[in-house]
Amino acid sequence: MILKDSAPPAPPGPGGLDVAALATVLVSSEASGHPVENMFDGRPDTRWLAEDAGEQTLILAFDAAQPLSRVALKIEEQRDTRVQELDLAVSTDGGRAWRELVRQEFNFSPGGATVEAEDWRLPPGLLATHLRLRIRPDKGGGACRATVTSLALS
Length: 154
Hints:
Shape: globular
Largest sheet: 6 strands, antiparallel
Low-confidence stretches: 1-12
Structural class: mainly beta
Strand order of the largest sheet: 1-2-4-9-6-7
Order of helices and strands: EHEEEEEEEEEE
Strand content: over 45%
Number of helices: 1
Helix content: under 10%
Distance between the termini: 24 Å
Number of strands: 11
């Protein structure tokens, strides 16, 4: 799937980037009714949801290199108990080489932790041509689907 001006761009958060205006978004799959645009709309009641179970990749290919200083991510899981792994990587050379910035796990439990909210500060002076988020929704191999409630960049 590719997002490029396919929906009215959501206003960026305070100091945030308007991703729809600045990048083409490539995503490995999306469920009907839960498109990738939902990650950027600023609404707490929408989300992107993968069509397929298993690892998913989201790539932001910027039209022009962007100075990035922060990535804020929110993922909600109310139903499945699972251990999710994700990694965030950046390319400064048009997507030829990638540098991993963050790799982490999060334990979701409907009776306990149901929201993962991250606010990552990026290295100073970073000029990104691409940003990649990979999500492995269940390290235990269950048939869980990746989801992201919001993704904001500045």
